[in-house]
Amino acid sequence: MSDLTAPPTERPDWKAIVNFIPAGTRVLDLGCGDGQFLSLLLAQKDAHGKGVEKDEEKVRYCRARGLSVERGDIEEGLSDFADRSFEFVILNQVLDKPQLPISVLKEMLRVARFGIVSFREAGYLISFRSVLSRLGYYVDRSIFLKGSRQVYFWPKRRAQTAIYVIGGHGTHA
After folding, report:
1. pLDDT above 60 (res 52)
2. CA dist 86 to 18, 89, 138, Å?
């Protein structure tokens, strides 16, 4: 884990997500780890943020940094949070595989107006949009990154990271 006093590292995917989120927004960071991204978001956007983390040691670490983080397993649901209690719920490179459990997706969009989901190795995720559509959700925006550059997603220009901003059942910004 990183030093408590060190400024958060800014990864290209973090920068893209932070740039998308309006200032002062209520945000829930799922699988927040050591809280670096949440710290960055709070500092740069004056967001009102909470985190959920499965690892008790990381939760203690986040709390020592002054972050509001609860211990929980996102696959067991987000029952501690009321409907629409956040504008954004972020699931940033938490899942190793592109199979986002439907229950997690539904819970994300129950507690927030928008969900932000990002994956590494984005080359094979082109079907994610159609899966969301069949479930009644829409992709509000897609951001594809190769290194620190934003790229268009073509078979010839494979992205390293895909970031999807998802809205729920006809809920448009």
Report:
1. yes
2. 15, 7, 18
